[in-house]
Amino acid sequence: MIPLRDSTRSHTFPIVNYTLIAINFLIFFRQLTFTDQELNLFFYTYGLIPAQVTQHFAAGAALQSTLLPFITAMFLHGSWLHLLGNMLYLWIFGDNIEDRMGHLKYLFFYLFVGITGSIAHILSSPGSDIPIIGASGAIAGVLGAYFLLFPRARILTLVPIFFLITFIRIPAIIFLPIWFAIQLLNGLNTAGMPAEAVAWWAHIGGFISGAVLLPFFKRKGSYI
Length: 224
Fold this sequence. Notes:
Largest sheet: 3 strands, antiparallel
Order of helices and strands: EHHHHHHHEEHH
CATH class: Mainly Alpha
CATH architecture: Up-down Bundle
Strand content: 5-15%
CATH topology: Rhomboid-like fold
Radius of gyration: 17 Å
Structural class: mainly alpha
CATH superfamily: Rhomboid-like
């Protein structure tokens, strides 16, 4: 299922959401100028490496020395497909969450759920030395908040059925649980296995934290 747009319109200009999207694209354009060796070094420097985080905490390292990769990893992507898929979801769902939270709260919410998503991945693969990159943990948190705030919104979705492509308007209360179920099934199927190309548990952790943390970030007087 590929979402194309939602039926909920924002009442404010989503400057933070657009800025996040722009930063992700700008960094990816910079990555395109790197050689393979430089890109690999870039990912290992600014990506989040679970084993490194685990070792730092075990050694009692200062929090600030461990925190930076949690942030920088959210703005790195491994391919055009990785980037465009994430930014499509952020474009469709992020503006409404920013509208309901306000600009500054939305920024902190986005970063916080991205961090909790990464923590969920680390807990699932604490010894992995493969850097995780991408905005999907933070975007999953946005989806978790959207699920509670806009369950009746309708998502125009591209659904391939064998060789046919059809467009269906799916209520968010159906679309998002299906999305979450896919992440959960994949996460459970890969539990205990070597680190996968997709950090399923970052998606799961991000979505759950987005739903749980929503009451602390939405504007006063706003309803769920």
